[in-house]
Design a protein that fits this description.
Chain lengths: 260, 339
């Protein structure tokens, strides 16, 4: 299995505290990898480390086999698309203008959008199913619609790696499932997808691999049915979970059941 | 598919027509400003005087009318572009050089340079001091916003910075024991385009131009900041550099404009807001139009000042404040309702 993004013994200190300690992990093309863990486990820090947004105190991050320091800012931005938590849009742009921001790493200082940029925007909007809102201002959209427009913005970059931080938070169940479906579609196109999730049911049913973080360390990793062992759930989250088999043959869903 | 691409395209080109209209209007008011004045000289004689520099018409055209019209354009462009860039940086429509106190600090710098003899010794120190004043306040505000201050805190900090700058300006003027201190103070606090020379224009124009170009180089980054700082950085934007360019660009443009014409308020606040319906909300699409719109507003306000009060006791800044302050209130109410 080739690797799009890998962490090799990565440690990050943040405000005098070890936010990540010796994390080793791989994100493969065509795979949705869920990053799971309690609050403060280091999930967002892991994504920020991959984006070169903060310095590593030890270890290395390889993007397509090359260390972060060997990447120019623009080239890295074209290779990894990032959807931050809580999706902000500080100005009420029209949806298509917002999606066009995803093309910034492909455009020069004063270059107007080229044909390739428009095609990428149109394509990303079609994939995220937001073409109908192209003319609407993002402040007029519902939270779920806005989340999909922001998702289209990340897709428009055309990056081989897509990292999303809690994209399912604050969405209703239908929008959550729809978003996970979009992530799966991206993986099916060969993108390496990394997504932080709080919802164990989403992580267990929609991810190919999960990375369970606990206090900055990898507590478990692998396919969800293996990584989410009873022992791991107990030691990391302090819970017992209920598993619901999928009669259609898909993955079993995990539901947080009891505190232990 | 092609239809949808066409939709994407039409919106981008719509700005060009509006920009042309804005440019033509600015040109029209610049012409009005140039040909309007107490001296009874025909337009053709003035134009001839401007080109040749000969005779009375030449003196009036080159020494009186040109500096006034030119400064109106330059000052307006500086304030409009600064307002648009600051709003983009702070991601808030309430930011502008005057509300944030940048203008009054530039005024303070100019007054210190003028009344303590620095500018007499080296004329270049006048804009230099004004730019330093502007830079100090812009940097201070930015530090506050980096420390997590909200918009209301920033506006309040701007009020405090402004009051302090105005008080220090008054203090400086009284220590300077200038017999005209009071009237000079009004000039610096209210702004005026009256009685300026060609040299005022020739020092201000290049500095303002450099400032605006610097702001335009930051425009891509300002667009990306719409998505928040983390997302902007993930799009390959060097956010620290964008911030630095906006702070320095605003300081250069607003500092030079204020050194030339005093503190003209509310232009930077009002103009970007008026233009958003025509150019959209992308900060990058507003900087150049706001420069033009600011030039138009200041030129038109100056024409208005001169036509309602030929004695010219009425200051330009009074007119822009009379128009701008109620607008500011309205904007605050509107933002409250939307929140």
């Amino acid at each position: 299995m080739s690797t799009a993004l890998s962490f090799d013994g990565v440690s990050v200190n943040y405000g005098g505290r070890a936010a990540l300690s010796g994390v080793t992990a791989k994100f493969a093309p065509g795979t949705v990898t869920g990053i799971v863990g309690p609050n403060g486990a280091g999930k967002t820090t892991l994504l920020r480390a991959a984006l070169h947004l903060l310095p590593l105190s030890s270890g290395k991050v390889l993007v397509e086999g090359r260390a972060l320091d060997d990447w120019s800012r623009e080239a890295l931005a074209r290779t990894i698309a990032y959807l931050p938590q809580g999706g902000e849009a500080h100005w009420p742009l029209q949806a298509r203008d917002l999606v066009m921001l995803g093309r910034l790493p492909h455009r020069g200082q004063f270059a107007a959008p080229a044909g390739a940029d428009r095609h990428a925007v149109r394509d990303a909007m079609a994939r995220a199913d937001v073409v109908a809102f192209a003319d609407r201002r993002v402040d007029e959209l519902s939270a779920g619609e806005r989340a999909r427009v922001l998702f289209a913005r990340a897709l428009a970059t055309g990056a081989k790696i897509l990292l999303a931080d809690e994209p399912a938070a604050y969405l209703d169940p239908a929008h959550q499932l729809r978003l996970m479906g979009l992530l799966r579609e991206e993986a099916a196109r060969g993108t390496a997808v990394g997504v932080t999730l709080h919802d164990l049911a989403l992580a267990s049913r929609h991810c190919d691999e999960v990375l369970v973080l606990h206090e900055g360390r990898v507590a478990a990793s692998g396919p969800p049915d293996l990584a989410f062992s009873d022992a791991a759930l107990a030691s990391v989250f302090g819970i017992a979970a209920q598993r619901t088999a999928d009669p259609a043959g898909g993955r079993a869903a995990l539901t947080a059941w009891n505190l232990i | 598919m092609d239809e949808a691409i066409a939709i994407v395209r039409t919106n981008e080109s719509s700005g060009a027509g509006a920009l042309l209209v804005l440019a033509l209007l600015t040109l029209a008011f610049a012409a009005l400003s140039f040909f309007l004045g107490p001296a009874n000289i025909s337009a053709s004689a003035l134009w001839h005087g401007l080109v040749s520099g000969d005779g009375l018409a030449g003196v009036i055209a080159r020494e009186i009318r040109l500096p006034r019209t030119g400064l109106a354009l330059v000052v307006g462009a500086a304030l409009g572009a600064s307002g648009a860039a600051l709003q983009g940086l702070f991601r808030n429509p309430l930011a502008s050089p005057d509300v944030t106190g940048v203008t009054s600090c530039a005024g303070l710098g100019a007054v210190v340079a003028l009344y303590f003899g620095f500018a007499a010794a080296t004329p270049a120190l006048l804009p230099a001091f004004a730019i330093l004043g502007a830079l100090a306040s812009a940097a201070l505000l930015y530090a506050l916003s980096r420390a997590g201050a909200g918009v209301m805190a920033l506006v309040l900090a701007g009020v405090a910075i402004s009051s302090l700058a105005v008080a220090l300006t008054a203090l400086a003027l009284s220590f300077a024991s200038n017999p005209y201190a009071m009237s000079e103070m009004v000039l610096w606090m209210m702004g005026s385009l009256k009685d300026h020379t060609l040299s005022d224009l020739t020092f201000a124009a290049p500095l303002v131009l450099i400032g605006i170009v610097l702001l335009m180089t930051a425009s891509r980054g300002l667009d990306a900041l719409t998505l928040g700082e983390e997302a902007a950085r993930s799009l390959g934007i060097d956010v620290a550099s964008v911030r630095g360019r906006v702070v320095i660009g605003v300081a250069l443009a607003t500092g030079a404009a204020t050194a030339a014409a005093g503190a003209v308020s509310f232009v930077g606040l009002v103009v970007p807001h008026l233009l958003r319906p025509f150019f959209g909300f992308n900060p990058s699409r507003l900087i150049l139009p706001s420069a033009l719109g600011g030039a138009l507003l200041v030129t038109a306000s100056d024409v208005l000042v001169r036509s309602i009060d030929s004695g010219e006791q009425l200051r330009l800044g009074v007119v822009t404040a009379l128009l701008g302050a109620p607008f500011f209130f309205w904007l605050i109410l509107k933002l409250r309702r939307e929140a």
